[in-house]
Each structure stands twice: as C-alpha cells, then as structure tokens.
Write a structure and sequence with these properties.
- By secondary structure, the protein is mainly α.
- The protein has two domains: 147 residues, no CATH class; 156 residues, no CATH class.
- Helices cover 79% and strands 0% of the residues.
- Helix 4 packs parallel to helix 10 and helix 7 crosses helix 9.
- The longest helix has 70 residues.
Length: 415
Amino acid sequence: MLEQMITRVPERWREVAELLAAPIIWIPRLQRMLLDFFLDSSSGWITAAKLFFLLFPVLLGIAAIWCTQLSIYTLPFRSRRIAFVSTMLVTWWDGARAVWLYWVGMFRMAAVVAGWVFSLTRMAVKMILEALHQVILIPFTVTGRMTSEYFQPGVPWIAFVMLVFWCMLETTIFTYTLFPTVSEVLSDMVGAEQIPRLAGPVLWFFLFLLIMGSFACVQALVEAVQKREFKFIVQIVLVELFVMIFEVMFLYRELVDAITPWIAQQTGDKFRPGIGFTLSLATFGWVGVRGMTWFLFGRYGTPPLLAFISRQPMEGTEGRAMARDLPKTATAWWRAPLEDFKREVGWLHEKSDELLEYLALPVIHLIAAALNFALVVLTGHPLFSLPFRGLKEVMETREALAGMQQLQPRKQGNV
C-alpha cells in the first residue's frame, strides 16, 4: 500500500517521499513474509505448533516495529529525546522478556496440566480400585456387622422369623389335609355342592392363629415353671392338655390318616391301624414336633411374638427389660463424604484460578508489552511495569491510567 501511494506522488517529489517512507516501507513486506511462514507448513501439527509458540510473539514484534519506526518521525518534535530513546529501549527489553515469559509460561502451563491430568487419573484409578475393594468386601463387612449386632443383647430376630415361617408351613400342611373334610362339612351345612372360594384362606388364617396359640401356651407353661407358680402350673397344664387333645384330634390325626393307606400298602394289608394306634401316633407326632421346634427356635421366638402382639417390652430371665443397644452418638453416614466433596470443590476452585493465571499471564505479558510500545510513542511513558506477578496487578489498569493522567510535563531544554 505504501509503495502504491509513493508511485502516485509526482516524480520530482518521489525521492523525498521514498526517503520519508524509508523507516516504515519495509514493514508490510516483512508482514507478508511472516504470513507466508505461518501458512507454508507441511502438516497441520507444524502449523499448530507455529501458531501456538510464535503467533503472539510475532504479533508483538510487528507492533513493536511499527511503534518504533513511527516514533522516528516524532523525534524532531520531542523534548528529552535521550529519555525517550532510553524508554523505547527499555520497552524493547520488556518486550523480549515478555516473549521469553510467554514461552516459559506455555511450558509451565503444559507441565501443570500434565501434572493435574496425572493426579486426576491416579485419583480416578485409586477410587475405582477402592470401589472394587469395597464391593468385594461388602459381603464380609455386612456379615461382620450382622454378626456383631446379632450377638448383642436384643430381639432374636432369626428365631422370630423361623417361628413365623414354621407356623405358616405347618398351617399350609394342615390346611391341605383338612380342606377336604372341612369342604364336606360345609357342603352338608349349607346344602350346596360348592363352597365359597374364601373358605381356603379363612381356614388357613384360623389354623395359623391356632398354631401360634399352641406355642404361646407352651411359653406360658415354661414361665410358670420358672417362676414356680404351682397354682398357675396346674391350670396351664390342663390348658396345654386340652390344646394337645384338640390338635391331635383335628390336625395331627388327619395327617396320620393321610399316610394310613401308605402304611397298609407297605405291609400288604396285613396291618390295619385302628383308632388307638392312630391317636397314639398323632400324639407322639405332636410331642415330637413341638419339642424339636420349641428347643430349636420356639423358646427364643415366642417371647418376641407375644411382645409384638401386646406391644410390651420383652422381659429377661431376671425380670429386666432387654433394651436394644443403640449407639450413643449416631453419626450420619453422609457427613464424611459431604465434607470431602466440599474440600474437593474448594480445591478445584483454587486450582482453577491458578490455572487461569498460568494460562492468561503469558498472553497478557505480550499484550501489555504491545500497549507499552504504543503508549511510549503517544505519551513517552509505558503503562505497565512488566512482568506481572499475578492477575491482581493486571486488574489495576484504571489506577495506572489515573496515575499517568496526573503526570505533569516539565519544561526542559532540547537535547
């Protein structure tokens, strides 16, 4: 563009124009050469490396050259020329340091990012391994906690669940054996061939209550014997006898009758069980079943069942209430992870500000150096004192401008 403007100047003034434009006429050619240097690359990686490492320093160099060459035209009109030239040279020194700090800052940022990536990767791997470790140890941890808690004084939940399950199982068996007889009796009573569908569930619930009541009677007998209440022992023995007769006659007898054909088949019809044999076998079955279930889980599961029904605390053998051992200080499980998360968020905010400073300062140094060149040409004083120690100094631009406006020029002799 400058060459075209010179060619339009009359020929007699062309040499003067070329002399006047000599300080800056070569700068556009230098810019074209630098542009070709950036665009002429064999691969995209080389172009990216040139742009990353050289673009901002080259732009600073071009701005510095323009400001320096243009300041030549102002020298005849300036006072304190030696101070101006010294300031310009110091500004060039600051620009060179800014370029060096840019490259050092880029390598520093790359090293910091690599370190953070390595740290985050290591933390992620560590967390994954710890999670796998916790998943593997979950069965052992849960088993240990359940064992430690179960053997503490408290409600024997396993015995309670086993008792309820056994009552349900025994109820189901007796419902299956009694349902044909009950169906026949109900059909004769109502005079209908089909009984209601609710007869089965009602019979099951009725037998379930009777079987649980049988365990409750055994528990009452045991407590009476332990407390040596002889009058109550006689009463409860009579009640238990009636309970046994009822269950033997209506429950266990039906079960024995169900297996009687199998007994006759195995003996070749040589042995036909009578009523005495059937009732004796049913009685032995009741005593054996009640004895085995009582000593296995009934004596531990029946007190919680009665306490649950009556909503009263369980009484120990010494008459003391068996209180559940609760921890004195219930620490919320989510507090520790929440505190760790807060610390991690604070660390990320701090490191993000540090990363922003690492990323911004190298480029800001170059921009500040370019502005210093322009302000040296305009005012004779640089605006910024390079290098910056942090982003806080960059934010003090308004204070620097206010300080420059307060500078009063002093009249001195020309040098």
